[in-house]
Amino acid sequence: MLKEVVGFAPTISEHSGRLLHSSSPLTFRLSSISVFQYTWLFFLIIVSFEFSLVDAAHLYPNIIMPSQSGIDSSPSCTAMDPKLNYLPVIGILSHPGDGASGRLNNATNASYIAASYVKFVESAGARVIPLIYNEPIEVIFKKLNLVNGVLFTGGWAKQGLYYSVAEKIFKKILERNDAGDRFPLYAVCLGFEILSMIISKDKNILEPFNASYMASTLQFVDNVNIQGTVFQRFPHYLLEKLSTDCIVMQNHRFGISPESFGKNEELSNFFQILTTSSDEDNKVYVSTVHARDYPVTAFQWHPEKTAFEWGSSIIPHTEHAIEVTQHVANHLVSEARKSLNRPPAQKVLENLIYNYSPTFGGKAGKGFDEVYIFT
Question: Which residues form the active site (predicted)?
Fold first, then answer.
């Protein structure tokens, strides 16, 4: 029987039917060969690693390896552009109700902002100030002086006070841009419809479409120029995916056909059509437009839902769908960074949406996962 010795592991061999300890000459020679083999293998790994670094340098010629720099100093960081605002704030217009047909709050003066729009803006590096639609218009205009862009959300309200306030805000946005400030507007779903009504000067321009709770593609119009638009920085493969895969979320019962859009001179002069989509009945409607002379983009679809809403199994949550959300959010905030507005920091803090608490609405039914409710 072999002795158990601390720090010594005996080697057992079947050679000649004998047990050999690691101290035997044969075992020593075998161990030496093993050490040689492992040393040679280690040498090959090191050489292979060095060649891989050389290959990486050839693949990425702008990357300088430490051994190539010849300078032992701390890396220098690119200076920030003093013309850009790296603390952008987006104003989001609230919508009448609680987002859950009164199941969360049935106060007659209640309005809400779905938290998905807030997260959408925050994901691209901006903060949010709520523009509560039924506050005095003077208060809303004061808040407009604290933001660098605006977002109109989806919803159902197309008349009354909400329509009137949206129209006044839109006119202020145009005035700000005409005065030389880069001041973007995103209009989603209902926002698209209201802008179409305001710009066309025709409150009956909308047509019925069967596009409630459906995922769809986006078809780019012939000879479209996407330079300067929301799609400019999309990678080529993602533009292709938009045309072939149902990775955007639609949820609307009204819209505008390309024919009706083209027939209205005010609308076609203000906007250029970027994409169209088809509803459940294969009727084609305009799905994305970009203003010719202003940083205004309108979406009949919902870029915020794919990453931040989970209440419907129809909402696409694929990696490509999430990429679309990210690129669309990034474009809005990149435009807002160009705004010349530099409001007092304390005034911004006093009005940020962080002064309110979101309500979890997912258990209440088919509404939004979270909403900010204002009463």
Answer: 189 (nucleophile), 302
